[in-house]
Specification:
about 25% strand, binds magnesium ion, ATP hydrolysis activity, four-stranded antiparallel beta sheet, Rossmann fold, ATP-binding, AAA+_ATPase, about 240 residues
Length: about 240
């Protein structure tokens, strides 16, 4: 589903920084890959390259058969197929919950309002928040907003879902409800790349765990490998700090 091959990314402000160094990752359809690593290691930059929020400087990135770094590739199409959920929920504050989930279906997927609303309600039910369809985002808790943000992404029928620390901004008691939604998505076979510090989720849901440090993938393996016998000293140090 995703093939990233030798992806490099540089930033030039404030100083030159080689943020991604020959990062390669293949994600099969239906696979759940959890990306872990210290702050500043390039996890967000890598995810953002996968839906072209950042344009990689070199390397190749394919989503299914589509070369997303081809200048001729339609960026809106890429974003519709590669859904992304951020730490900050980024709902549209002036729109109701349902409208948040409906709008891009009409503009990007060209669905009628009736179809978009029907699908929107179905997805709000799926994330357990249908009864709130008429309220505005600021009337919801963080966990509820994040579930709406997931529903909004799913409304595009993405082929892949990227999650960038989706629970890091939440109060502890709301983390579980968002992880439950993600766990259910994984069970239904969604292809997912998840940056998270929730090691319980990684252990239970990940097919594969990837450890990034200083812009590189240092180690890849099953959750068992990571939590029982990590190979790299940097991985051991990182895990000892967060577990
Ligand atoms: P992580 O998500 O693992 O914490 P990031 O991908 O956000 O790491 O950042 C990797 C490195 O790239 C960091 O040193 C960060 O400061 C830098 N960086 C990220 N985005 C930008 C940007 N837009 N401009 C300059 N530097 C950036
Ligand atoms: Mg990040």
């Amino acid at each position: 589903m995703i093939r990233a091959i030798n992806v490099n990314k540089f930033f030039y402000t404030p100083d030159e920084l080689h943020a991604l160094k020959d990062v390669s990752l293949h994600v099969a359809a239906g696979e759940v890959v959890v990306v872990i690593g210290p702050s500043g290691s390039g996890k967000s930059t890598f995810l953002r390259c996968l839906n072209r929020l950042e344009y990689a400087d070199s390397g190749e990135i394919f989503v299914e058969d589509q070369n997303i770094l081809d200048p001729a590739c339609d960026i809106n199409k890429v974003r519709a197929e590669v859904g992304m959920v951020f730490q900050s929920f980024n709902l549209f504050p002036h729109m109701s919950v349902l409208e948040n989930v409906v709008m891009a279906q009409m503009t990007v997927r060209k669905r009628s309002r009736k179809d978009a609303e029907a699908k929107g309600m179905e997805l709000l039910r799926k994330v357990g928040i249908a009864e709130k369809h008429g309220v505005y985002p600021d009337q919801l808790s963080g966990g509820q907003q994040q579930r709406v943000a997931i529903a909004r992404s799913l409304a595009m029928d993405p082929k892949v879902m990227l999650f960038d620390e989706p629970t890091s901004a939440l109060d502890p008691e709301m983390v579980g409800e968002v992880l439950d939604v993600m766990r259910n998505l994984a069970r239904e076979g969604m292809t997912m790349v998840v940056v998270t510090h929730e090691m319980g989720f990684a252990r239970e849901v990940a097919d594969r765990v990837v450890f990034m440090d200083v812009g590189q993938i240092l180690e890849t393996g099953t959750p068992e490998h990571f939590f029982t016998a990590p190979g790299h000293e940097r991985t051991k140090l990182f895990l000892s700090q967060i577990l």
